[in-house]
Amino acid sequence: MPFYITTPIYYVNDVPHIGHAYTTIACDILSRFQKLNNQDVFFLSGTDEHGQKVEKAALNSSTTSKKFVDQMSENFKKLIPFLGCEINDFIRTTEKRHIEGVQFFWQKLKKNNQIYLSNYEGWYSIRDEAFYVESDLIKDGNDYKTSSGSTVEWVKEKSYFFKLSKWQDKLIEYYENNPELISPKSRYNEVLSFIKGGLKDLSISRTTFSWGVPVPEDKEHVMYVWIDALCNYITALGYPNKENSSFNRYWPGVHIVGKDILRFHAVYWPAFLMAAELDPPKKIFAHGWWTNEGNKISKSLGNVIDPYSIIKEYGLDQIRYFLFREIPFGNDGDFSKNAISKRVNADLSNNYGNLVQRISTFIIKNCNGRINQTLNFNKVDNKLIKLFEEKFKNYHEQMSIQQIDKALRSIFDLLSETNVYVDSQAPWTLIKTDKERMKVVLFLICNIIIKSTIMLLPVITESSTKVLKIFNYNFDCISFNNFNKLLDHDIEISNPKPIFPRINL
């Protein structure tokens, strides 16, 4: 079954930071999980390259807008493999396929009587690429600012408008009938409250700058950056060519976005799509923001987290794990070095890594690196097997609804109980008193390690792969098909090496 997941396309007025990394890794985790479910996955990322903010940034860099976005887009593209992420496509809004698709989309809206020309007058934030009513703004001396601190300016110009107000009741009905389409629940409530507060028609073109997609049949106007940017999710699939394209196969998709751009994705985008006679997104998940050692992250404070440097310092899988185990996915979180070391040492080094190391080393030393398959389990063994089945069920349900932190907790609850089982069954004692029982115990422990490792593959891919190689697991068999069944073959161990060195601050 097809599964389509997207990051937002990242705005190229600045270099990538930990927030961009967080969203991309989240999509990668969910993409890999669905692949283990044998789904046909399409994972999209890309860059948003138009708008007044980009035009100004290019001028400040003394270069053309095109050269500026070419350079900045490459920064985002190169980060993806560094994060251990595997995408299917990278869309740029300056590409011909995108521009042609957006212009077709515009003409479709116009044909459906969803667009009209009028005059716009109101507050506009260049940084947010968004329009605001005065009640949403904060008085700052003689000026106004948004709640996020961005400045606004009074804009008065001719503009094309989208009939957003027409879709208010349809959006309310749609979300009330499908409350699971926006997560977490607090974000769903926020969106529904905003819509019920009243939707006004949306200005969707500008004439005060030129760096944008030209409006068809009116070259004085360029498209408002959000109607341009949001269409990337369908133009990357070949829209408007619905025949022999990925569009029919994969759309609608799942969008993972930061909470600051939820309104654009959960209000404007579904309305645009419905107006163009297309299906709205399948799911929109809005995650929170990170602080750094308790402080808001900002360039002025000099505490922006560079994903390259933090990963080089702690390790890729260590950071991937920390980001999605430390806080509930959807909440805000604090990025601290002390928290990283505590989480990695407790979970990855002590709980998981130590279990892998001591069991694999014991089998190498005492069993010639081989444990035979067995089903000769007793009551204590069956209790652990039942726990595994329960925790896998929880894991699968939680990952299916983007509760990544809860899914990870299920795995590590299982690993903790497996460590208790190891200590209580004491194979180092059984080797002297009951070798056959020892082999049963070791076979079950190896099963739990291998199954837990496969569940961890979407999050800590490199390390999980190393562990599976220690247990000589056949990578062609990695899937959640018949996952509850124990292995039906002997287990061979080779080259046990520490996977997670402790972090010392």
**Helix tally?**
18
- What is the count of β-strands? 21
The helix-and-strand class reads: alpha/beta
- β-strand percent reads 15-25%
Radius of gyration: 26 Å
Uncertain stretches of 5 or more adjacent residues: none
- State the share of residues found in helices, binned by percent: 40-55%
What is the terminal separation in angstroms? Answer: 46 Å
Assign an overall shape: elongated
Mean pLDDT: 93
Largest sheet: 7 strands, parallel
Task: Please explain how this structure is put together.
- It is a single chain.
- This protein is of the alpha/beta class and 505 residues long.
- The protein has 18 helices and 21 strands.
- It has helices at residues 18-36, 52-60, 65-82, 96-111, 168-177, 185-196, 225-230, 232-235, 247-250, 262-275, 307-314, 316-325, 337-366, 379-400, 404-425, 427-433, 435-456, 461-470, and strands spanning 2-6, 10-11, 40-48, 89-92, 115-125, 130-132, 138-140, 143-145, 153-162, 182-183, 202-203, 205-206, 214-215, 218-223, 254-258, 283-287, 290-292, 295-296, 333-335, 370-371, 491-492.
- Helix 13 (337-366) runs antiparallel to helix 17 (435-456).
- The model has no long low-confidence stretch (mean pLDDT 93).
